Amino acid sequence: MREPSDGGKWGEALPNGTWIGLVGDIKNSRAHFGIANIFFTLSRWNYIDYTRPYDLEYACFVVWNEPPLPHWLAVTRPFQWPAWVGILVSFLVSVLALVALARLGGGGERLTFTSFQRAALYNFGPRGGAVRTFDGSWRVATMVIGIAYCAKLVSYLTFPSTPAPLDTHRELAETGVEVGSWGGTLGELMAASANPWDRQLASRYVPNYDFENALRRVHARQYGYIENRNLLIYLIQKYYTTRTGEKQLHIMKECFQNFMISVALPKYSMLTDLFNSKILRLREAGLIPIWFSWSLEAVKSDLVDVARTSESASGVHSLSLEHVQGVFLLLLFGWLLSLLAFLAEMVVRRALKRGTEIIVEPFLERSSVAPGGVMAVN
């Protein structure tokens, strides 16, 4: 067993019609057969023979994982926006109901809660009477919502959330990055695809003959690399999985095309029937997926973190100022609102005081005091 004589990989045709790599060695009888994750394609089948397929592979893109969302948004994440809208609407409805009950029910709460502003401010503390039952149900609902929010907030403060990764060819095409694979075979197939997004990706197809360089470019959000799924799973497991099991690259769910994987032989080889019978027995025994799982297990003990990301030695995380920045920003926002409300009250009060002075001064100019202290008006 040896690698291709020219140092290539699976093999492709040069512009002059010469084949290189594994296919070239088999075509030129430098090898009796070739074993690799080699796709069954018509362009190769014109020059070599294939055995019955022993696996079915998908050509998929590997892309980068989106960065975590900023921590200051953590205070809003426990609920989705429909839930926040529902909470706001419920509060407004409760205030209106409180005002209506206070005006219709009478009692000691009438003077306190008949205005909308006072009802909104004291919605959690009525003094009894007609609004007691309504307020009790509102307090129970508030308690449930508050407990659910706090429990969810802890997880979002501790572990940053990540947005949904790229999973379709359309999303990848809209990023505008280059794409590629080993050789130009997949680029040619994408250019002939009926999917317009595949053809758009094919227009930016740049072959890459270095796995390490290709994956580094992918991690840097500069490249989309398409290869057979099992190979990508193996490379990510070995080079882009942290010791805590975090995957630093993502295989898109929408794959380009599926291919049959076979053993390659020279045309009209006498070994073809022998391989076919053995491959059939291996498939029936279920050994192919077992061997692949063993290969993944073998690299788990020697993970190499290429991206050099920081890792925590402990599973317990203490909250830092970065984690709770959203809480302090919310506090600052409340202070600013309070300051604006205070300034608005000052402006309104001065305007009302000035209007009172303008009304009183002309009244005094037209008035006089009669003998005996009686005011006479002209």
Give a structural overview:
- With 378 residues, this protein is an alpha+beta fold.
- The protein folds into 4 domains: 1-54 and 262-285, Periplasmic binding protein-like II (D-Maltodextrin-Binding Protein, domain 2), CATH 3.40.190; 57-67 and 162-261 and 286-300, Periplasmic binding protein-like II (D-Maltodextrin-Binding Protein, domain 2), CATH 3.40.190.10; 71-158; 325-377.
- It is built from 14 helices and 9 strands.
- The strands form 3 sheets. Strands 2, 3, 4, 5 and 6 form a 5-stranded mixed sheet that branches. Strands 1-7 form a two-stranded antiparallel ribbon.
- It starts with 20 loop residues before the first helix and ends with a strand.
- The model is unreliable at 126-130 and 301-314 (pLDDT under 50).
Write the layout of secondary structure elements.
Layout: H1 21-27, H2 42-45, E1 49-50, E2 55-64, H3 81-105, H4 110-113, H5 116-121, H6 132-158, H7 169-175, E3 178-180, H8 185-191, H9 196-202, H10 211-219, E4 223-228, H11 229-239, E5 249-251, E6 257-261, E7 264-265, H12 272-285, H13 287-300, H14 325-365, E8 367-370, E9 374-377
Parallel strand pairs: 3-4
Antiparallel strand pairs: 1-7, 2-4, 2-5, 2-6, 8-9
Helix pairs in contact: 7-9, 8-9, 11-13
